[in-house]
Amino acid sequence: MATAALTGRAGQLRFSTNLAALTTSLTKVAELMDCTLTVNRKEIDVTSHDSSGFKSVLYGIMDAKLSAKVNYISTGAAQKNLAIQLLASAPLKMRASVLASTQTSKKKWEFNCIITKFEQSLPTDKQIVGTVEAIVDGAITRTS
């Protein structure tokens, strides 16, 4: 049976310290292995005696986080900037773009974020892997 699934191999993750930068100006993270963007919308429970026995909710605040794994390259421009921002005494917010395509104008999520984690593993039996985590700060936009 044929499938309409898309391969994830064309995905991209891009970052910049310029919060007004366009996706094409963001630095592409080299050797991206996996990237997960999680967006959640909190709910506000407003159930009352007038709810006829059914739960009633309103939309609350939205939060989102990003997690990515890369083949760690210590000299990679984007990877280096992520580590610098995490360790800085006055870290800058970063502009990020998660793309499901090689085209920078389609299938993308864009947002400002704060880097919260940079992890490096040193296994004896496989490649060195870097893990980056960030939380979204402010609005998030999606382009089809």
Describe the structure.
It contains 1 helix and 7 strands; from the N terminus they run ββββαβββ. The two termini are 27 Å apart. The protein has one helix at residues 77-87; strands at residues 12-16, 27-28, 32-45, 57-71, 94-99, 108-121, 129-143. It has a single domain (9-43, 56-143), classed as Factor Xa Inhibitor, CATH 4.10.410.
The proportion of strand residues reads over 45%
Order of helices and strands: EEEEHEEE
- Give the CATH class: Few Secondary Structures
Structural class of the secondary structure composition? mainly beta
CATH topology group? Factor Xa Inhibitor
Number of strands: 7
Basic shape:
globular
Q: How does the SSE layout of this entry go?
A:
Layout: E1 12-16, E2 27-28, E3 32-45, E4 57-71, H1 77-87, E5 94-99, E6 108-121, E7 129-143
Antiparallel strand pairs: 1-2, 1-5, 3-4, 4-7, 5-6, 6-7
Keywords:
Factor Xa Inhibitor, 144 residues, 7-stranded antiparallel β-sheet, mainly beta, 7 strands, 8% helix
Provide a quick synopsis of the model.
This protein has 144 residues and is mainly beta. It has one helix at residues 77-87, and strands spanning 12-16, 27-28, 32-45, 57-71, 94-99, 108-121, 129-143.
